[in-house]
Backbone:
């Protein structure tokens, strides 16, 4: 019996070690992939492997412009919710009008980037994993390589560039949408005018608040791209594998997003 | 200077994980010949092809394509070499988000500075060669299996490569389509003097197009020779393959028991 338990213990330690090793390996792979993607952006033109500008633009449209309606709806709703909760909480102190401060700060510093990140992870992260995964299964990635086309340069670099460019813009858009949501609710509930709301809001927030959100959105852009693409590249086992990779990409990307958000919020506000 | 052989493989040993797949393969393929690599499932023929394409790094041994050792040359030399290689994958491997025409143009777009209309004309010419004229605006998903293979072939030859590789060209094709593809392969050798390597286990097609046949079994080369030499070979495994005979290997009782009990 004791031997059995010792065996079980050894087994769990071994599993723990294996999981850690896998995690470190995956993390190393992310880093290598990031490095390689940037390498091709800068070195590509000299190595006859340029990153094509039209591809970057079409990715920008797909990642950014196509996401705007859904980003608007969700951010607007978040703005309304923040206003409701804020008014409810502040009423106890008779300070409902201060709600604008709460909305403006939490939206620009936290909710704008986070909602955008989660949405883009769901839309683009999953699409990337599915696309690259399907290409891997159909030997399209091999075909690119034997044609002398580096798959990272061709598939990853344009997306990474497009994401780095679009994420801050979508985040700004989300900031505005959420602020608008708050404004509509405050107008209906407190009778606060839109101009007064805008003036109050902009008086409180500093460029630093907005920039903090935008900086996070850049980090999120890298996380979503790499987690999506690397899960796609590591697909084995046909259509089922693609499905698994897609799910994994979204779940992991959102986890890393929230963890990175917490870390950056901590360090940026010390 | 033209190297002596188009492809030279020496002492190639490869592993997949801990499992040894190829065990000391030596292979020489001459310029302008069609060499068929034959063997049963699991004989390592697909692995050999993937190594010839430079998709994996071998454990031991060297592979020289057009006189250049693909594991020793610089990335830029490998890049140049790859513009001299065309590959037709088993499932075609057309990029599914692009039309047939864009797929065929892809190597031109990435490796040349030709203008769009020239690339369009070149792509259409190659599509005509494979009897797919007028199909350039369709998506790969709208094509039949045989058409996908032919479109993939058009893409493989669009740069007029010196070497052409096929992975199971007739797999999944009806006899007529497969015979047409064979004719096309012969035409390419005769009109463009390409060196062609075909991995297949289709005997009929192999005998029809081969200049030389390499028979692979369990990671080793059993026999390399002309069609006649292979047909008349006295090696039992070769005859098994040719006559569709089942393997009649003696079973080692101890090993068998060991496998069944999982080595306990």
Residues:
């Amino acid at each position: 019996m004791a031997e059995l338990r010792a065996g079980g213990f050894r087994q769990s330690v071994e599993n723990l070690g294996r999981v850690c090793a896998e995690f470190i390996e995956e993390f190393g792979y992310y880093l290598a992939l990031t490095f390689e993607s940037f390498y091709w952006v800068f070195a590509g033109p000299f190595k006859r492997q340029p990153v094509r500008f039209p591809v970057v633009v079409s990715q920008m449209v797909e990642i950014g412009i196509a996401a705007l309606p859904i980003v608007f709806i969700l951010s607007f709703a978040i703005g309304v919710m923040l206003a409701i909760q804020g008014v409810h909480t502040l009423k106890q102190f008779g300070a409902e009008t201060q709600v604008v401060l709460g909305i403006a700060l939490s939206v620009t510093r936290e909710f704008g980037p986070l909602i955008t990140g989660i949405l883009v992870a769901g839309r683009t992260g999953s699409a990337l994993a599915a696309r690259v995964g399907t290409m891997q299964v159909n030997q399209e990635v091999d075909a690119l390589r034997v044609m002398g086309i580096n798959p990272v340069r061709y598939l990853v670099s344009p997306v990474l560039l497009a994401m780095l460019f679009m994420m801050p813009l979508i985040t700004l858009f989300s900031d505005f949408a959420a602020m608008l949501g708050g404004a509509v609710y405050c107008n209906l509930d407190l009778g606060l005018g839109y101009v007064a709301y805008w003036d109050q809001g902009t008086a409180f927030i500093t460029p630093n608040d907005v920039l903090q959100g935008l900086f996070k959105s850049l980090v999120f852009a890298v996380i979503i791209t790499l987690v999506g693409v690397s899960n796609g590249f590591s697909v084995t086992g046909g259509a089922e594998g693609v499905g698994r990779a897609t799910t994994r990409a979204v779940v992991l990307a959102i986890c890393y997003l929230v963890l990175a958000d917490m870390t950056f919020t901590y360090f940026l506000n010390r | 200077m033209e190297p002596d052989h188009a492809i030279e493989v020496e002492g190639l040993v490869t592993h997949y994980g801990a499992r040894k797949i190829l065990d000391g393969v030596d292979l020489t393929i001459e310029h302008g010949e069609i060499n068929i690599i034959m063997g049963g499932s699991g004989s390592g023929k697909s692995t050999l092809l993937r190594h010839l394409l430079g998709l994996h790094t071998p454990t031991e041994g060297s592979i020289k394509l057009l006189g250049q050792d693909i594991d020793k040359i610089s990335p830029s030399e490998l890049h140049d070499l790859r513009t001299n290689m065309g590959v037709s994958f088993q499932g075609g491997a057309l990029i599914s988000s692009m039309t047939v025409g864009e797929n065929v143009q892809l190597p031109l777009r990435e490796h040349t500075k030709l203008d769009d209309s020239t690339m369009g004309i070149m792509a259409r010419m190659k599509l005509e060669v494979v009897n797919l004229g007028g199909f350039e605006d369709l998506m790969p998903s709208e094509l039949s299996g045989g058409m996908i293979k032919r479109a993939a072939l058009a893409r493989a030859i669009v740069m007029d490569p010196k070497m052409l590789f096929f992975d199971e060209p007739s797999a999944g094709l009806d006899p007529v389509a497969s015979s047409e593809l064979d004719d096309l392969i012969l035409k390419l050798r005769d009109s463009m003097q390409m060196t062609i390597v075909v991995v297949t286990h289709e005997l009929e097609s192999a005998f029809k197009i081969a200049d030389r046949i390499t028979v692979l079994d369990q990671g080793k080369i059993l026999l390399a020779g002309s069609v006649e030499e292979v047909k008349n070979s006295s090696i039992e495994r070769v005859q098994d393959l040719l006559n569709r005979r089942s393997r009649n290997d003696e079973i080692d009782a101890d090993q068998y028991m060991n496998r069944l009990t999982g080595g306990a």
Observations:
- Strands of chain B lie at 7-16, 19-29, 34-38, 60-65, 68-69, 85-88, 163-167, 195-200, 212-217, 220-225.
